[in-house]
């Protein structure tokens, strides 16, 4: 479902992704771990083309894009079609503050995809049920806890009917007691067969929810394998050193 082949990305002189390849099968869940600055967010942003790679290929489902230094930027229309396949949830909640919870969830399908308001309202209530927030439909984001905001952000991403979901430290900004309710929603998505990449510092979660764990450092994939094995019995010195901070 997701295929990354030889992706490279620099910002000026700083080479951030040095040669990344990775695959996620349909319904697969990959956890992506590594020290701060190793390129995890940049890789996720490349997966939905918020950041355009310098080189390499990104495929999501049947949509593939090949990048090559010196080639033209993809057309906006192609970028939009590609991005609509990929839902993303960030560390900060990015909800629209002037819209109710329901309006936040309906906004993308109605304005980006041109869907009808009635069908979208039905979908939005279904998704708010799924994240346990139906009763908050008419509330504005400022009245929600961080965990509730993040669950709305997940519902909003799902409203676009993405083929894959990407989570970039979705629980890092939350008070500890609110982390569990968000992880529970992610766990449920995994059990329903959503294809996902999870950047997380919740190491137990990275081990238990994902089949595969990828450890990145300095723009490279250093180690990759069954999540339980990588996290409990890492083979590379760099992986061992990183994981030792969590024990
Ligand atoms: P991680 O998510 O693993 O912490 P990032 O992908 O955010 O790592 O960042 C990797 C490196 O790329 C960092 O050194 C960061 O400062 C740099 N970087 C990320 N985005 C940009 C950008 N838009 N412009 C310049 N440097 C960037
Ligand atoms: Mg990051």
TrEMBL record:
PROSITE patterns: ABC_TRANSPORTER_1, ABC_TRANSPORTER_2. GO terms for cellular component: plasma membrane. Its main location: membrane. It is a peripheral membrane protein. Residues 2-243 form the ABC transporter domain. Gene3D superfamilies: P-loop containing nucleotide triphosphate hydrolases. Pfam families: ABC_tran. SUPFAM superfamilies: P-loop containing nucleoside triphosphate hydrolases. Keywords: ATP-binding, Cell membrane, Membrane, Nucleotide-binding, Transport. It is found in: Cell membrane. GO terms for molecular function: ABC-type amino acid transporter activity; ATP binding; ATP hydrolysis activity. PANTHER family: AMINO ACID IMPORT ATP-BINDING PROTEIN, L-CYSTINE IMPORT ATP-BINDING PROTEIN TCYN. Belongs to the ABC transporter superfamily. This is ATP-binding protein. It comes from Methylobacterium aquaticum.
